[in-house]
Amino acid sequence: MRTIAVGIACALAAHSALAQTPPPGPAQQADLIVTAARIYTVDADRPMVRALAVRGGLVAFAGSVREAMVLRGPRTRMLDLGDATVIPGIVDAHLHLQGLGKALRTVDLAGTRSYDAVIAKVAARARAATPGEWIEGRGWDQNLWPDTRFPTEEPLSRAVPDHAVVLERVDGHALLVNAAALRAAGITAATPDPAGGRIERNPDGSPTGVLVDNAMALVERVVPPPSHDEERARLLAAVAELNRWGVTGAHDAGESREGIGVAEELAHAGRLALRDYEMVSGDSDDVAWAFGRGPQVALEGGRLWIRAIKLYADGAMGSRGAALLEDYSDDPGNRGLLVTDTNEIRRIAVAALRHGFQVCTHAIGDRANRLVLDAYEAALDTVPTADHRFRIEHAQTLSPPDIPRFAALGVIPSMQTSHQTSDMYWVANRLGPTRVLGAYAWRSLLATGVVVPNGTDAPVEAVNPMIRFHSAVTRQDADGWPAGGWYPAQRMTREEALRSLTIWPAYAAFMEHVAGSLAPGKYADFTVLDQDIMTVAPERILDTHVLMTVLGGETVYERSAR
Length: 562
What we know:
By secondary structure, the chain is of the alpha/beta class.
């Protein structure tokens, strides 16, 4: 990578041409002037510029180098990015900060290609663990293994008999545990399935070691909680990982008040290098705490927002927990799981409207999406509200009659384009040839006039936003499969894909007036890339590197020279 230099010849020439112009007064001088070959502002008035001037952490000017140099004073820092590309700071519209931090600090099982590989990683961690220590990990996905059936605990228990083991599936909607963990939780053949959950069982009724959706809580309640210091470490690790990939904002999809307290603590100490939009967990105590406190906006210099509630309607497609209108095509008799009663979703939505909160509900299957839209409609009939910006998180599989209802109700489909390229190898088996046409239907939704903010669901998917951008515009994997894209009529344009990473997440978080584009008066958050993702060949998009991440005019990540 070329070393980023300070000052540029054209900027100096422009300054020389303006030598007779009186210097700006101290109040008008820029703290920073940034120049680059191309700066995509995502601002309709000036979509591409060559220079930005920053003052007080905000964009003071976006336009030509000559104009920006008028704001140069004796203390102005000059940053010439040469042939690099600048875009607004990338926002992840749906992830799990503590989950990402935990994944970074426990056993990483993402991409493991066999159950044996999972066991080997866990056994290695167990050999270094203290006696009695629980072993935690995340990321296994049986769909990637030669045998795509759910695993059973016996091989894991033989390899790691002396430590309780708890391993989250990649989607976070199933656990694989060993015999020691089952004993610790008191789960036996006599343990009934909880509402909205399923204990996978052997023919004799004994648990296999896989717990789906609400059944996960049977073990989670006995896992030793992380210490406060560990929660801080996890959050800091997650933020550093996001900054490394050019991410300046994140929508944290369902956090407890204790977890939000950690974020507040770090923000107050000046250590939260992120615009963190927190969705409060749907736990009744957490919701009551949030409503009692009221919406919190732009705390600690715009680092923290707390004004949304996160609910769950169903499970995930990979573990066959997504709630469908008809049976799974590859599992007759199974229509998935509803993990929260629809009346409860409606009740909380009504209360949220009365308290000034947004509601964001996880819904993946077509039945779950329909029921959430029904619940939202009933809530809005009870408390008519303009600009509520209720969201459905994932909106992954939709029945055709429900697609226009998002726009009609003012509901935002918050989606993850990288889910499509991860799931496309097997999702048609789950849904069959007709229902799959309503899966990951970005173009169908965009055509109705809604926006589609784009996230990763990290740690479910990789943080790298270029994967999201590439998936959105190609609907292909990193190897270019399938040729022409998977149901290519649903692709986004590059302009839409860029908006899905920037201004649309800002809108989905009521932040479009202060973030999401590089326009005067907004936060000076931007991401510097080593190539132009708006023009480079599609197969080269994933080769893009982040050179620098800037939050409020301050560099929070810079790539080392290679």
